[in-house]
Give the backbone structure.
Amino acid sequence: MRPRLLPVLAALLTAGLAAGTVAGPARADDPRRAVQVALLADTPYGDAQRAQFPALVADVNADPQISLVLHGGDIKNGSSTCDDARFADIAALYGTFADPFVFTPGDNEWTDCHRASNGGYLPTERLEAVRSVFFPQPGRTLGQRTVKTTTQAKDREHSAYVENVRLDRAGVVIASVHVVGSQNDLAPWFGAAETAAQRSQRLAEFEARQAANLAWIDEAFARAARTRAPGVLLLMQAEPVVGPGYQAVRDRILQQSRTFGRPVLLVHGDEHAFEQEPAYAGVANLTRLETYGDTAVNWLKLTIDPADPQVFSWQPRVVGQPGAEG
């Protein structure tokens, strides 16, 4: 851990304790009981949404059915700074959710931090900062009621990937997978000014993370097969579209979903539009669900019900309007 991050982490810990964080044991998952989950992504996007965000937290916290919050990445917009103080502030804000908070990184908090408006950082340095601030205890969530997760960091071959986590809810296997925008870090750092050394470092980062992600996807489906899970939920920032940055991950998800045969839900953000796409890429049991983004007033309430043949269903929510659709 870099010394300059220690004051930031101390501030984060203080904020978490002030919010009443309880690092208690995970509740035993009941594979027979339906659960409700809040889905977010790409928020808060800028200072105005940062000011609005506590109301969104309060809205989610006020719903007694919610027991887990999933955030699909991008803690800020693409033009704001990537400094430690912003990271600590947002992490503390996420820590005010009453329920466990699971976050997967987005491109705005590391791959794009080379931009002058972001501070001109080396992206891999910011990735380490994200890991330090948002995953201070590998294998444990943020939120006031933290719970244990299974983290890929326990795998000696992929020990850096504290952000890839897995947990079970209602018997369903939920896994976060670190797949981001900006071509999944294939977009050049510093644009045309990228040096040969930086390009080499960027490609090495991409290859290592892709290997970790493919292994983590395989592990999620292997666990689902072992436990006879009614479904699988994969959480990532970017949609794995056809193209060099995403093709291997996309192909692996399609292959594993076909083999699994039961409902699979691919949840992502990045494009800032609520979208739902059944039979994604021609796989009948795979659904793509994009959450709201660039908003602090809209979120999705996801129900995971093992008694439902479809397993997954969702309802748009608007802050301050219980049960209202967006």
In short: DSSP finds seven helices and twelve strands in the chain.
